[in-house]
Amino acid sequence: MTGSGILLVDKPQGWTSHDIVARTRRLAGTRKVGHAGTLDPMATGLLIVGLNSSTRLLTYIVGTDKEYLATIRLGATTTTDDAEGDVVEEAAPDAVAAVDDDAIRSGIADLTGEIEQVPSSVSAIKVDGKRAYARVRAGEEVVLKARPVTVSEFELLDVRRLPAAIDLDVRVVCSSGTYIRSLARDLGAALGVGGHLTALRRTRVGSFRVEDAHPIEDVDVASALVPAAEAATILFERFDLTEQQAIDLTHGKRIHVADRENGDGAPLAAIAPTGHLVGLIEFRGKEARTLVNFPTDEIATA
Questions:
Q1: How far apart are CA 257 and CA 70, in angstroms?
Q2: What is the pLDDT of residues 5-16, one digit of tens each?
């Protein structure tokens, strides 16, 4: 069985995130596989997969900021706010032609910063215990509540004018929970011509980048795996333990560090003298407790 760690996958178009997990289970020979942050089948790019005990890190990875490259088509709305849905309405060609670059930049600026966003009705958000997209497919009308998100960067890279549409290449850096196709929909609505997403690629999740990812079709999981200790120290500040501290934390005890300065309570990656990840810890004053423990039976392979 493959050990504990994080696998960076460059998801191809047409694959679901579940497809990636299923393939990883077969390749790694383990059932304990999860992923951080779903990508739609249309989307490509970085999907972070956790194996064995490193699935415990995924909760912390999901909450990090994300970067995307996307193409927004102005001139039509769809049922899914992306190219996979049916076209609901198309704007008149002269209305599309009347949208100038300044209006586009202004619309993008209005969707930058801390905003309230209504997720797409075909998102994976649960409504009374059932995924919104499943309710839509069953014929229900679903309108989700607006939620606060942060779009820290919304950069216009290129404008291509077509006979009855405008394609915008953009780069977006945003908080967890932001829907890029909702940005496409809302930009099109603000400009009065409708809009939807035609391409999406996730290029970064937190400190993990797509340049370091592997294609799932021929990945060697054992060699591509980022060990748990390395993954944790990418996510968090490293705290090196003594042998006794490692033993105490492993047994569920708290540790006291006399020379520890008061921190901000952020998780730390607790690393044993052997180099393995003991767990994530949190300091309160000079005393630390375990937030997440990692099992010793994976040390040899982690």
A1: 48
A2: 999 999 999 999
Active site residue 128: no
**Contact of 266 with 237, CB cutoff 8 Å:** yes
* Amino acid residing at 156: L
pTM: 0.90
For residue 167, what are its two tokens? 């394609």
Distances (CA, A) of 149 to 112, 230, 271: 10, 30, 34
pLDDT tens-digit readout, 157-197:
999 999 999 999 999 999 999 999 999 999 999 999 999 99
Give the Cα separation of 23 and 172 in Å (integer): 29
Q: Which of 10, 40, 81, 82 is catalytic?
A: 40
What is the C-alpha separation between 199 and 163, in angstroms, rounded?
19
- Say how far apart CA 105 and CA 108 lie, in whole Å: 5
Task: Give CA–CA dist 232/23, Å, rounded.
Answer: 24
